[in-house]
Design brief:
The termini are far apart. The chain has about 280 residues and is an alpha/beta fold. The protein contains eight helices and eight strands.
């Protein structure tokens, strides 16, 4: 994508955020209001970024986890309505750094994304079996960071397998990366491909959650409302009808052995006047 920035410093640490640093209008959808903010980079430098103002749809942060490159993308919208690109990029860590430092870099940069864009939900790629165990371990370790961030902020977390994302975005669970990227461009109205592929995958995850998560949320709300209604109806059926004053007086009369109780006489007179006495 045009405007892709380099890493935050000479050692390669930092992020490349295509939509955030691009000065060309085509990198941000025309319907998206933008603003510029300044933050501190990985090495203490001041970084100016252009980000989108919040609209009226659901905002999802998609994360394609990885140690060397962690794709991050923010999409806003709702099922049945056009989606908007808010920001997209990649968090990079040098392969020569100690593992705990690499994980800390990802966490720090991801917190910046959460602070800047304030998403309503986080979508992360679900782990699946691969041949390279070292790759699995690194991806699993990186995927824990957005999961913990969601728990810490109380945000809904969704885990989608690659097949689920492909099916949601392209309609084909076996689509290749080129097809997925092409559909991401079409859905978000982009003129150029988000690069590298990790960035496009993060956007696909966010799109998948907006479409599937929004529908699932409405279905869950409907099920909850239906169960609540059924529970209230069942409670009403179990609760006996409140006796009227005449029935109360008769019960008191019988309990007293049939003696002339003032309450009985008063209730009888009222019942006779209303024509309800039996």
């Amino acid at each position: 994508m045009a405007g892709q920035a380099g890493d935050g410093g000479g050692d390669g640490r930092g992020m490349a955020r295509a939509a955030n640093v691009c000065s060309e209008p085509r990198c941000v959808p025309p319907s998206l209001t933008v603003r510029t903010v300044e933050t501190v980079g990985a090495h203490g430098e001041t970084v100016a970024r252009t980000i989108g103002e919040r609209g009226d749809g659901m905002r999802v942060l998609g994360v394609d986890p990885g140690l060397t490159r962690c794709g991050v993308g923010v999409v806003e919208g709702a099922p049945g309505r056009p989606l908007r690109l808010v920001a997209v990029g990649v968090i990079r860590t040098p392969s020569g750094d100690p593992l705990h430092q690499r994980l800390l870099t990802i966490q720090t940069e991801l917190e910046d994304w959460l602070h800047d864009h304030d998403p309503d939900a986080i979508a992360v790629e679900r782990m699946f079996a691969r041949g390279d165990v070292s790759t699995i371990m690194g991806t699993a370790q990186a995927s824990a960071i957005p999961m913990l961030a969601a728990a810490r902020r109380g945000l809904p977390l969704a885990l989608h397998t690659p097949s689920e994302v492909k099916a949601a975005v392209t309609g084909n669970g076996r689509a290749d990366k080129a097809q997925v990227t092409s559909m991401v461009m079409r859905v978000l109205g982009l003129d150029e491909r988000p690069t590298p592929a990790d960035a496009a995958d993060a956007l696909a995850l966010a799109i998948c959650q907006v479409w599937r998560g929004g529908a699932a949320s409405r279905l869950a709300d409907a099920v909850t409302d239906n169960r609540t209604t059924e529970a209230l109806d069942a409670a009403r059926r179990r609760q006996p009808a409140a006796p009227n004053r005449w029935q109360q007086a008769v019960a008191a009369h019988r309990a007293s052995g049939g003696s002339a109780h003032p309450a009985v006489a008063a209730a009888r007179r009222q019942a006779v006047q209303r024509g309800t006495a039996r």
